[in-house]
Amino acid sequence: MLAIDYQEQLIPLLKTHFGYDSFRPNQLEVMTDILSKKDVLAIMPTGGGKSLCFQLPALAMNGTTIVISPLIALMKDQVDVLRANGIAAAYYNSSQPQEEQQQVFEDLNTGKLKLFYVAPESIAQFETVFSQITINLIAVDEAHCISSWGHDFRPAYTQLGSLKTKHPQIPIIALTATADKATQDDIAEQLSIQHAERHLASFNRPNLYLDVRPGQDRIKQIFNFLESRSDESGIIYCLSRKNTENLAEKLRNSGYEAQAYHAGMSSELRTEVQEDFINDRIPIVCATIAFGMGIDKSNVRWVIHYNLPKNLEGYYQEIGRAGRDSLPSHTVLFYSYADVVQLRKFISNSENATVQYAKLERMQQFAEALSCRRIALLNYFGEHVTQDCGNCDICTSPPKYFDATVLAQKICSAVARMKGKEPMGMLIDVLRGAQNAQIFEKGLQLIKTYGASKDVSWQDLQQYVIQLLNQGVLEMNFKENSSISLTPLAKEILYNKKPVQLATLSQRENLKVKAKETKSSKKGLFEKLRVLRYQIAKEQGVPAYVVFGDASLKDMEAKKPQSMEEFATISGVGEAKLEKYGEAFLKEIKANSTRSKPKIPTHEFTWNLFKEGFTPLEIANKRELTENTIYSHLLKMHAQGEEIDLHELVPQKELAQIETAKLDLPEAQGLKDYFEYFEQKVPYWKIKIGLYLLDS
Ligand code: ADP
Ligand code: MG
Questions:
Q1: C-alpha 296 – ligand 1 centre gap (Å)
Q2: How close are the terminal C-alpha atoms of the chain, in Å?
Q3: Which ligand is nearest to the CA of 85?
Q4: Which of 336, 344, 388, 411 has the fewest Cβ atoms within 10 angstroms?
Q5: What angle, rounded to 10 degrees, do the helices at 405-417 and 424-431 form?
Q6: Radius of gyration, alpha carbons of the chain
Q7: Residue 399: per-residue pLDDT
Q8: Ligand 2 centroid to 390 CA: how many Å?
Q9: What is the pTM for the complete model shown?
Q10: What is the distance, to the nearest Å, from the Cα of residue 610 to the centroid of all Cα atoms in its chain?
C-alpha cells in the first residue's frame, strides 16, 4: 500500500502555527506514520525537533494529544511555546494551585485542549477522562526515562506500560535522544510497542563547533572567550561542586553574571538558578553534570567543559545543550592529563570499572585526536562518516608534522633512565632540567638527559609526550602511579634510529580572536531586537526564546521586513506571533534601518509614488529626476506586467501622428529623429511610449 502524502496538509499548518517553511530530517516521516495511526519510536538528537513531531499531527487530527513528560520545567516550556503560537495547550501537575488544576480538568473534559501535558505520576488520575474525550495520540517524551538501561531512569515511567493494553487503538509515539540499541529495545518492550516504526535520525549536530584546548590557563582562556560574548547564554561544566562555586565567583568578580549549580544546593536555589538562566536573567551557569536535563532553552550559544567528561556519551549530551535553534554555537573542551588521572581514581572505586576505563580511553582519544573530531565522535556513536566536517578545531587549523626523531630519542632516553617508574610530570621536569626537591631527592639531576629539552616549553613537551603515548611509543601504567614506560616501538627509536613525526603545536589563535569573528553584529539590529524580545518576554512572564528564537531575530536582521506581509515570511513567525508581536518588531526594525534601507530599484520607487497618486511631473520634482526618466520607469513597470494605462498618457490623436512619423521616417536612427520631426514640440517620453504602443 502506498503511504499517503501528508506533506500538502502539514506544510501549511507548519507555517500557520509555527512559522517554519520546511521540515527537519525525519520529522515528516514520523508525522506520516502518526497520521497513519502507527506506533512510532523516534530517536533524534537534542535540538532535532522532536516536539514538533507530535505537536503538528495533534493539530492535524480531531481530539486531544496526551503528552507525558518527566519534568515540570519541560512541560511548562513546551506549553509556553505552544500558547505563544496560539495553540490550546495546558499541563497538569500536583504542585499547581487547585483552581488552576480545576481549570485544566475542565478544559480537558470539554475537549478544548489540543495538547495536554502530564507527568507519569499523575496519569492515573485521568483514566476516566480518557474514555470520555477523543484522544488521538499519546506521546511519551524523554522515553528513555522508562528504561533502567538509560541514564535518567524514572520509576513512575514504568506505569506507562499499561497504556497500550488499555487503549490499543490510540497510537503511541515514544521520543528520545538516547541512541543506544539496548535502551531503544527496552523502551519499545516496556511500552508494548514492539512493532513501532523506528526512525533514527543522524546524530550529527553540524552547527556545533568542536574545539579542544590544552587545559593550561583555563581561567584566562575563558575570560578571553567571554570578552565578546558577555550576554550570550552559556554553560561551563566542572567536575566538582567546589569548582563550580569557585569559578562562578571568579567570573562574578570580573563583572560577569554567573551562578553555580550543583546537586549539593537546596532545591529552591537550584530552581531559581535554572529559571534565571532560562529567562536570560543570568547568562552563565557553572555547573556539574546535574544541570541540563529539563532545559529546553533554544539559545544556549556555547558550552565549555572545564574538565574532561568521563565518557563521550556525557560529553555529547552536554555540548548538545548548545545551539538547539541550529544557529552556530561554540563548544570548548579543556583537556588535561591531571583530569584523566582524577577520573581514573573515581572509576577504580566503582563496579563496572573495566567498561568505564574503556570509555574514558575513548574520551581521551577524542581529545587527543589529530584528525577531524566529528568523524571520531560520530564513529563512536556508530555513524560511519569519512568526510571532514570543516567545523572543528582540527579542520580549521589542521596539524602540520615535523621530523621529531631527535626529540623522541631524548624523551625515550629519559624514560629509560628513569626505569619507567616516573609519571609524566616528573619526566617533563627532568627533560626541562627543573630544579625541584623531588628531583634532587631521587638524584634525577644526574641522568644524561636531564635538561636535554630545556628549549621546549613545559606545555609543548607534555603535548609531545601525549602524542608519543598515542603513537604507542610510550605507555602509561595507571595502576602504578601513572608512570610512563617504553614499549618495543620505543626501542626501535632509541637503538635503530627509527624516524618519528610529531604534529607541530601551531600557536593556536587565541579563543578571543575566534570569538570576535563570529560576533560581528554585536551592536547591530540583532542586539536591539534582543532587548525588545527581553522586554516583551518579561511583561508576559515567559522565557525570551518563547517570544522568538535567536534564529527568528537573525532572519529579521537579514531581511529587514518593512511590512506585516514581509514580516510573516520570517522563520518562526506564524499567525499568532505575527499578530502579537509583528507591529512591535516592525517598528524596531524600521527605526533601525533608515540608513541601510533595503535598496529597491529606482523604477519601482517611482512606481510606488505613482500608485500613491503623484503625477509624473510631481514625481520628477520630488526625486529630482527628469520627466523623461520618470516615464521610462513607468514604461519599464508596464513591461514587467504592471497595469498602467499608457493610452491615457498618449491620447489617440498624438498616437496617430507618431504613426505617420514612423511611416515618414523609415530610416530613423533613434528618438532624436522623431523629436526633430515634431520640431521639438513633442517630448521624448511621449514619442517613446507612442512607439512602444505601436510596436506592442
Ligand atoms: P528536541 O526535543 O528534539 O531536543 P525541540 O523539539 O525542543 O528539540 O526543538 C528544538 C528547536 O528547533 C526548537 O526551537 C524548535 O522550534 C526548532 N524546530 C523544530 N522543528 C523545526 C523546523 N522544521 N524548522 C525550524 N525550526 C524547527
Ligand atoms: Mg525535547
A1: 10
A2: 54
A3: 1
A4: 388
A5: 120
A6: 34
A7: 86
A8: 28
A9: 0.75
A10: 46
pLDDT, the chain, mean: 90
| DSSP code of residue 392 | B
Helix (H, G, I), strand (E, B) or coil at 566: helix
Ligand nearest to the CA of 572: 1
Say if ligand 1 is within 6 A of residue 142 CB. no
Tens-place pLDDT, residues 552-597: 999 999 999 999 999 999 999 999 999 999 999 999 999 987 655 5
For residue 395, give Cα distances in angstroms to 64, 341, 371, 391, 603: 48, 28, 7, 6, 47
Q: By C-alpha distance, which of 180, 508, 550, 461 is closest to 332? A: 508
Longest dimension (CA), the chain: 116
C-alpha cell at 575: 499567525
Residue 525 clears pLDDT 50, i.e. is over it: yes
Q: What is the reported pLDDT for 594?
A: 63
Which residue is listed with cell 499519546? 138
Atom 23 (ligand 1): residue with closest C-alpha? Answer: 23
Own/partner long-range contacts of 660-663 (Cβ < 8 Å, ≥24 apart): 662/691, 662/694
Question: With a 6 A CB cut-off, is 77 part of the ligand 1 pocket?
Answer: no
pLDDT of 479: 76
**What are 312's three cell numbers?**
563521550
pLDDT at 367: 94
Residue reference for cell 491615457: 648
- Assign 295 to helix, strand or coil: coil
514 C-beta closer than 6 A to ligand 1: no
For ligand 2, the distance from its centroid to the CA atom of residue 12, given in whole angstroms, is 23
Residue 294's closest CA among 128, 94, 543? 543
Q: Is residue 339 over pLDDT 60?
A: yes
Residues lining ion ligand 2 (Cβ < 5 A) are: 50
Residue 415 CA: distances (Å) to CA of 45, 431, 449, 507: 45, 10, 9, 27
CA distance 625 to 619: 8
- Distances from the Cα of 382 to the Cα of 307, 379, 462, 608, angstroms: 25, 5, 31, 58
Q: Which residues, other chains included, contact 601 with Cβ-Cβ below 8 Å and sequence gap of 6+? A: none
| CA 609 – CA 611 distance, rounded (Å) | 5
Task: For ligand 1, say whether the CB of 50 is within 6 Å of any of its atoms.
Answer: yes
Q: CB under 8 Å, gap of 24 or more: what pairs does 659-664 form?
A: 659/690, 659/694, 662/691, 662/694
10 within 8 A of 164, measured Cβ to Cβ: no
Closest ligand to the CA of 69? 2
| Beta strands 401-403 and 501-503, pairing class | antiparallel
| pLDDT greater than 50 at residue 1 | no
3-class SS string, 216-244: CCHHHHHHHHHCCCCCCEEEEECCCHHHH
Provide CB contacts within 8 A for 594, sequence distance 6+.
Answer: none
Instruction: Cell 520618470: give the residue.
Output: 630
Strand pairing report for 258-261 and 474-477: unpaired
Task: Give the ligand 1 atom nearest the CA of 22.
Answer: 23
